[in-house]
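Changelog-adjacent note: as of this version, every example in the card shows the full chain rather than a window. The one below runs 689 residues end to end.
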Amino acid sequence: MAQTEKKGGLLRKSSASKKPLKEKVVLMYDEIFTTEDPSKCNPRFWEELFLMKVNLEYLEGKLEALDGEELMKIKDNINCLFQHCIQALGEEHPIRVVNALQTLCALIRGVHQKNKSTSGFDIINMLVGFDKAELCMKNLMESLDSLLCAEGSESLKSLCLKLLLCLVTVTDNISQNTILEYVMINSIFEAILQILSSPLSRREHGYDAVVLLALLVNYRKYESVNPYIVKLSIVDDEATLNGMGLVIAQALSEYNRQYKDKEEEHQTGFFSALTNMVGSMFIADADEKISVQTNEAILLALYEAVHLNRNFITVLAQSHPEMGLMTTPTSPVPTTPVTPLGTTPPSSDVISSAELPLDADVQTSNLLITFLKYSSIVMQDTKDEHRLHSGKLCLIILTCIAEDQYANAFLHDDNMNFRVNLHRMPMRHRKKAADKNLPCRPLVCAVLDLMVEFIVTHMMKEFPMDLYVRCIQIVHKLLCYQKKCRVRLHYTWRELWSALINLLKFLMSNETVLLAKHNIFTLALMVVNLFNMFITYGDTFLPTPSSYDELYYEIIRMHQNFDNLYSMVLRLSTNAGQWKEPASKVTHALVNIRAIINHFNPKIESYAAVNHISQLSEDQVLEVVRSNYDTLTLKLQDGLDQYERYSEQHKEATFFKELVRSISINVRKNLAFNTLSQELLLKEFSTIS
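Full-length structure tokens:
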């Protein structure tokens, strides 16, 4: 007997002796694509259609092949198909429900693909008809809500979420997708929360649910009242919030694990051996090749949770026993292909055992630690556009955290100490820090380490000014909390001071190049005011009196940089150019730093001359400093401990619109390639009761 092959909806014998035969479902699709009502000749047409396995490729291809005029001719049949799909969602037989969900996906995608240039209202008319749109969409949303909340099949729930993601992402700009008005009116918010609060549902569908919620929150968020924003902002159920945190932590951990695996693979490779032989001169180039796709979708979800919901802040510090108890599965788990923006969900709800133990003594991790590690990776290389966006979003999230009173309370809590192994960019002039030597410290130390690391490693021609400004703002906000609450943090402040002085040095060295693109005086003023904050209020939050002495030592030791900065801003503030005003602000801000330098330098020179010492040691300089505080006069500067709070709508709207657009495109691509396969679904429902 000749073997039968299937291709593009056709059945043909391998001998090719006869014309190819079409599948029955394809023949039925062809009937829908005529101007006649297909149920006229066959009253059971719609019942039979939903017993047939959907041919997504053929149905979408058929829709795309028609021009606008041809599509309008069969509009009644398309409307009829859409309405019967919705009716089939209420059927008892799961195979009919599966096929209806699949068909809806194909219809929505196919019609949208065909009508890219037309308005959303035309799409609604084409799919369901204006007259029946409200009722049909209400029924659709209610059916999806029931399926998501029911005790039934996990595969059905998965397909419902895929359909919703398909519905949300059919347009690049989700705010132009007017079908979403019906998703706003007929909310599925509670169904999403139910998935996140249940361990089983969360494990199966948590990723899709979180991404769906993040996208829905961004629908016309600046133009109208979005019910998903309102509802997300008042969620206070602990299980739900922790569930959301677990999904986000798991996705970020998966990224961290993949990066670590690639890093280890890279270090044990041939290039690493060659590097060891010839020294470290090529180390930066070698490590640039380590690349794992970033995950903006899950990062957006974290941002919305932190930004909108004050209760979610508590989740950041929650340890994750679920992750700790799980082990990596032995059987391979199927994964979806990685897209350019990494919107693919992780392979399973499992954290590798390597992610959890930060070392032998500390066995728990939390969402904030995982996020800080993720940030330390994506912020290494800002030359890549996606990483730049990821890095910016990481800093925006940290900005929201740094402004929150409760977040600051646990960040600075001496009873919550962790070893946080941040990834550090390989640089020629420093050795890689050994993980075992990491001290156990409050979490704010890891945030400050991350900021210092960024400051030190991004002084380059393509200067990421915006990221530097955000970075300095985060440090400032943390210092404001410490000053206000008199928190004496035991931190290596010298590393921060050194990084800030080197940043000023870089700005001066590259004045001409940078001024062509940026107002570097804004950043210089922020850095100088950080020093003013330490000078004016340091005695209230620096850990010891000797720390305050060390601040003065660093300013005196590096006085040439401050002198050069003063000369530069004085030159520009006395000229009638565009930089006159911003430069003069820096001139005024330097008054106390210059007073310190001008007061102590003559005293140090005098001490050296009297004692016949050509070069003073640090202890000797500190001795001069301590004995001459009394005669130092400083000017009180106002507003050093004040800052403008973060505002998304006024300053970040364009960034988020572009980000959501990118995420929407990539979620859609993900769905299009492989996540709507029926094989597993039909295997689950192989019999009809």
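Structural remarks: The chain has three domains: 24-179+658-688, 247-266+293-320+364-427+436-491, 497-648.
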